[in-house]
Amino acid sequence: MSIKTYKFNLLVIQSSSIGQDGTMKFFISDAKDLAILKETMQELSKNPDEVRSILVTFEGKKELLGVAYLKEIDWFSLTLIDAKELSLINQSALVPILSLFFLLSLIFVGYVLHSLVLNPIAKIKAMMKRIEDGEYNLQVSIVGKAEIADLAKQFQTMVKFIQNYNAKLEEKVKARTIELERSQDCIKQLAFYDPLTNLPNRRLLSERFNLLLAQIKRNSNYGALMVLDVDDFKPINDRYGHLAGDELLKQIALRVKSWVRENDTVARFGGDEFSILLDALDTDAKLAKTQSIAIAQKIQDICSKPYQLADTICTCSLSIGITLICKDDQNMEQIFERADKAMYSVKQSSKNAIHFFE
Hints:
Layout: E1 10-14, H1 21-24, H2 31-46, E2 51-58, E3 61-70, E4 75-82, H3 95-132, H4 146-192, H5 202-219, E5 223-230, H6 233-240, H7 242-259, E6 265-270, E7 273-278, H8 285-303, E8 307-309, E9 312-314, E10 318-325, H9 332-348, E11 354-356
Parallel strand pairs: 10-11
Antiparallel strand pairs: 1-4, 2-3, 3-4, 5-7, 5-10, 6-7, 8-9
């Protein structure tokens, strides 16, 4: 049997075209043939494993139209055979040949669709899924031919744009994160530390005091609070200037901090006054007193040595008041009041001395 080749002898139509007469009228103009074709396509949609053949008028001649439904892609395959050869179909020997032709047609159409359309689209979909999952650095290759290749090129361009945009966005986020961290550090520094000496301020010292008090109650040991005041600071500040006065306070802060223990806290509330929380002293009050006085004497000795202030060398002394902190203490203000009284008793007498609150 010979099969006449037509312009449309192998057609593939999407199933969504069933209800659109204009889509199929371009090769089937007879209304009855069109209605039969639509009915056949609807039946095959429900029975995708079957193959149907119908007689239609094509280019003024009767043709045999083979119809099959490609369920996987939701398209229909249409195959035309010249009607002059239809008389041969009644011969039993040609029925298997005709069936084989339809089968081969379907296989050919399926292969073409898979290799030229479905496989490239599946690869593009896989790459899109990887991008959706956040994998922006994948390498996009060109797949398919003609329109599919153009689509892949456009997709490749889009991916490169996304990659560039994502890289710029990451840089902006990184810069913004660094800026935010710096701002947070700055806020924390201003909130808890003295801007001149970088020592803890009253707020941070208050928090450290609550921690110290909890530790003292657990261990039944003593702590201590020292209040230090720079003797005759105002005359030094007036004589050498405010910059020299600030430099003196910074150097005193460094010296005091270098002589206390790691778990002790040195703070500055402002002016020429410093405070020290001593942690983990002895459980015996007399020994704790002795320990705190020994630390105060070391601080007083190291701070009495000369200071280099720009082109000027000067000396100063400290008046120190001390009070113990025990497990029965509750109020930080009362403890500070005791230490202040001890310090002012030194200021009113000889200065440059240590007084313990009894």
